[in-house]
Write a structure and sequence with these properties.
Shape: globular
CATH topology of the largest domain: Spore Coat Polysaccharide Biosynthesis Protein SpsA, Chain A
Structural class: alpha/beta
Largest sheet: 7 strands, mixed
Oligomer: single chain
Length: 262
């Protein structure tokens, strides 16, 4: 099959998230095939195929090479689809893979590498939404990613991914942020024709799995939470100019990872 989407869900909590995500995907993209790799039974009928998670360094990295599609969109479970994908897969006519930049790019967490020091302008990519096509080059890249992840000994696969992407000759494309919408408060700043928000990817969708009392299930609720969190972050910092305050914040907060801040 040419185009399709895969999810990887280990555990009941992540399966529940994946099923909410795939429901949103099917509403916006009827007819697009979607497969699930999972260790759980009793899944919904929304999936076109359900397969066991292969053995490997992580469930995700082991599953990526096993996609049956010629052109694959991988999505984390903490996602919601907001609009049709349109011609997204056509990016793979020119590139082997496509990912978006991560956010919080001045933090130590997102600047971390393993064996390679890259310029600030080449930050980690967020690998929770990734488009890739079947090819010898992609297969070699994914195999190398697994090896590097195991060697790095880091819990986050983005560290080894950035190293590999910097050193690899693979043709890749950086997706616009609307295809991996991490910082939803950008919607407050965008003008009407700036972008087409398509894939929401937020840790707030899984905050209940991390002990939070409140479960957030949609963009509206996440917008409220992120606006409040953003205001609280800036309230704790000295005032500065429109651009200068970012440089000041980096100096004052250097070393903190802030992975789940707004």
């Amino acid at each position: 099959m040419r185009d399709g989407v895969i999810y990887v869900a280990k555990g009941a909590g992540y399966l529940d998230l994946a099923e909410r995500s795939v429901a949103s995907l099917k509403r916006c993209n009827p007819g697009l095939a979607v497969d699930l790799f999972t260790d759980q039974a009793g899944v919904s009928t929304l999936w076109d195929q359900v397969r066991p998670i292969p053995a490997g360094v992580t469930p995700k990295l082991a599953s990526l090479p096993e996609s049956r599609f010629a052109r694959t969109l991988y999505m984390d479970c903490d996602t919601l689809v907001l609009a049709p994908f349109g011609d997204l897969f056509e990016v793979l006519e020119r590139f082997e893979l496509a990912v978006a930049h991560d956010v919080r790019r001045t933090s130590a967490l997102i600047r971390e590498g393993h064996l390679v020091a890259t310029p600030y302008a080449f930050p980690q990519m967020n690998c929770g939404v990734m488009l890739y096509r079947r090819s010898d080059a992609t297969a070699a890249f994914l195999a190398d990613w697994q090896r590097r992840y195991a060697a790095a000994g880091r819990g986050r696969d983005q560290v080894s991914f950035r190293d590999l992407l910097w050193q690899s000759d693979i043709r890749f494309y950086v997706l616009p942020p609307e295809f991996n919408l991490r910082r939803v408060t950008v919607l407050d700043a965008w003008e009407p024709l700036d972008a087409r928000p398509t894939i929401l990817h937020s840790h707030r969708l899984l905050q209940h799995l991390r002990g939070a009392e409140t479960r957030l299930d949609d963009l509206a609720a996440i917008m409220v939470a992120e606006r409040q969190a953003l205001a609280e972050e800036w309230a704790g910092l000295p005032d500065g100019g429109a651009a200068e305050r970012f440089h000041l914040a980096e100096t004052l907060l250097r070393g903190g990872d802030g992975a789940d801040a707004p």
